[in-house]
Amino acid sequence: MTSRIYVAIDTPDMARAKAIATRCKHHVGGLKLGLEFFVAHGQPGVREMAELGLPIFLDLKLHDIPNTVAKAVQALSALDPTILTVHASGGRAMMEDAKAAAPTHTKVVAVTMLTSLDADDLTATGVGGSAHDQVVRLAALAEAAGLDGIVCSGAEVAAAKAAWPKGFFVVPGVRPANAKAGDQKRVVTPREAVDAGASILVIGRPITQAEDPDSAARAIGATI
Ligand SMILES: O=c1ccn([C@@H]2O[C@H](COP(=O)(O)O)[C@@H](O)[C@H]2O)c(=O)[nH]1
User: Fold this and answer.
1) 6: helix, coil or strand?
2) What does the mean pLDDT of the chain come to?
3) Which of 64, 121, 133, 195 is catalytic?
4) Which reactions is this enzyme annotated as catalysing (predicted)?
5) 1 pLDDT more than 90
C-alpha cells in the first residue's frame, strides 16, 4: 500500500533536497515542495525533484485576488502537481478560479488555519471563535468553491470530515510522540491523524532532520 506520508522537503539546497528525497523515497508516498524550495529553484527545481518518480505536492499556499491566483495556477500547470494549495481565506471566487485553472487531476486543497497558530493567534488576527469553528467554516467554503479538500490540523480533521465525507484532508503539524513541536502549535501524532481521518500526512523535520531520514520515515510509517 502506498504510504500516506508526504515528506516536506523544506530546504533551499538542491543537493540536500535530492539526498533526503532519495534516502526516504521507499517509505513515503510523495514529496511536498513549499515556498522555501520553490523560491530558490522555481519550476526547473520542481521538475528535477519529480524525476525521482514520486508524486509532487506543490505547497505554494497561493493567496491573492482571483485573477492573479488563476494566472499563477495556469503558469504552474505544466508541472502537473498531484496536489496544489491555496489559502481558503482568499475567498470563494479565488478558490473557484484556482480550481478552474488547475489541471483536471490536480487536487486543489485550501489551507484553513495554519498549524503554527493557536486560539490566541486567531483572536489576534481579528477572527472570533475557536480553531475548530474556523476550520469547519473554511472547509465549507472550500467545498462550496469546488475544491478537492483542505489542509488542517489533526485536531480538526474529524469534524471537517464529518461535514465533508468525500473531502481530501491534508494534515501537517504531525509529530511522533516525544518529538519537538518547534513552531507548530496544533500537533498530533501520526497515528492520531490517521485515526481522525487524514487522507495524507505532511511530515518535515521529524524525518528531514533525523540522522537517518530513511529509518525515521520507516519508523513513522510503521506506527500508522
Ligand atoms: O497549516 C500548515 C500548512 C502547511 N504546513 C507545511 O507543512 C510542513 C510541516 O513541516 P514540519 O517540519 O513537519 O513542521 C511545512 O512545510 C509547512 O510549510 C504546515 O506546517 N502547516
Assistant:
1) strand
2) 97
3) 64
4) orotidine 5'-phosphate + H(+) = UMP + CO2
5) no
| CA–CA separation, 147 and 162 (whole Å) | 17
CA distances from 64 to 71, 84, 86, 122, 127 (A): 11, 15, 9, 20, 19
What nine digits make up the cell of 47?
A: 521538475
ipTM surpassing 0.90, yes or no?
yes
Contacting residues for 51 by C-beta, under 8 A, at least 6 apart:
none
Cβ(203) – ligand 1 distance below 6 Å: yes
How many Å apart are CA 65 and CA 71, to the nearest integer?
10
At 200-222, the pLDDT tens digits run: 999 999 999 999 999 999 999 99
Q: Is 214 a catalytic residue?
A: no
Do β-strands 56-62 and 168-171 pair in parallel, antiparallel, or remain unpaired?
unpaired
State which H helix or E strand residue 190 sits in.
helix 190-196
For the cut 90, the answer to whether the pLDDT of residue 128 exceeds it is no
Domains (range + CATH), the chain: 5-222 (3.20.20.70)
